[in-house]
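@here heads up, posting the sequence + SMILES for the flavin mononucleotide run so it's all in one place. Ping me if the SMILES looks off, I pulled it from an old spreadsheet.
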Amino acid sequence: MSSGFDRPYAGTWAVVPVKPFGQAKSRLAKTLSATARMELAESLMRHTLQVLRTCSELANVVVVSQDDRVLEIASELGAVALRERSQSNLNRAIMQALGYITSVGGKAGLVLPSDLPNLHQTDVAELLNCMDHTGSGIVICPDRHEQGTNALLLSPPDLLNVAYGPQSFEAHVRAANALGIDAHVVRAPGIVLDLDTPDDWKLWHAQQPLFERRSVRRYSNALISRTAIERLVAAATWAPSAHNRQPWRFVVVTKESSKLELAQAMGDRLRSDRMTDGDDSAVIEADVARSHARISGAPAVIVACMSTADMDHYLDDRRARVEETMATQSVAMAVQNLLLAAYSEGLGACWMCAPLFCPDVVSQVLRLPSDWQPQALVTLGVPANDGKPANRKSIQMLTRWI
Ligand SMILES: Cc1cc2nc3c(=O)[nH]c(=O)nc-3n(C[C@H](O)[C@H](O)[C@H](O)COP(=O)(O)O)c2cc1C
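bot reply: prediction finished. Complex structure tokens:
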């Protein structure tokens, strides 16, 4: 068996048990056709293995299955493909894979199902970080109902007999306790949702744009219809806003000559600012060219502006500043709606902060009313790529529970 992960055999291995695609997702039978369920099972497995490939903390991945097609895809994606001996007994299949890891010198096993649509490398890192520094222990991530087990990290891999099935979360915690170990419970956001039931399916669809939208900076030449752009702007205007004063304003730029004029004028300001900084002229020119190409090359550009005309007005600076902040926050909410709506329409978009650095230039080129303050420029188009893979800090680092 060979591995495409090119990492040492020691360390933590992921274990992904995969049912034959034809038997997977039976609880979605009322929602999806048999073919759609098979395609879903395959695409989820591919997603899982692709995410695991990006986890530098993992030594390798083993896929255990009785299905030829599953094993073929596993090998194609660089995982170790282990033929299941047990024929349809999940717990035995997992124990077989954990035994394999032990036999090749792996120090820990992370069991993950192949149907976690929101799985991200950050989630895997979060689980691995929770492992006891002695190198021995159990980390569990339950499903969103706190009943099933969606991730089980065991160090060493054969620490206990896995007990997947109804209420497996509780069963695994109890099994750990019986060994005198406190299981570390982590609720990693990309792991708690597995796609089993029609409710999971609905939730996933509702949340997909939040997790899967990425900034897209390259577009095809395809034009975007005025109606499509109007839908995006309408979505933007349904954002919440302070006192519901809706301080957002939008300039939609699709005319080639206007995009060029804007890109040129903004580039000129960027050049003169960077020359004042004393930067290298070749570097400046490269940056100016990049900015120009980004703005002029997008099929549409939306400049989001803020007007404080309808906000409350205070005589003291402190409260006036608060009101201004609330207007800025409201415009940011609107732009986020716009980005999510673009994603939902299959469009790519990217927020550029450049107008904040040259509001006078933007106002002049676009002939803005005097109270419209440029805040952001959103480039928009049919994506030419998926955008850069993005990372997020763990919610544990960012959250305090009191
Ligand atoms: C206020 C703000 C300003 C940004 N400015 C720029 C920018 O000038 N150029 C750019 O390429 N991306 C810009 N971005 C996009 C971020 O780089 C991007 O959101 C971040 O890297 C996370 O990637 P993701 O959007 O793909 O999840 C900006 C985003 C925000 C919210």
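MO: The chain has two domains: 12-209, 213-381.
MO: One more: The chain has a mean pLDDT of 94.
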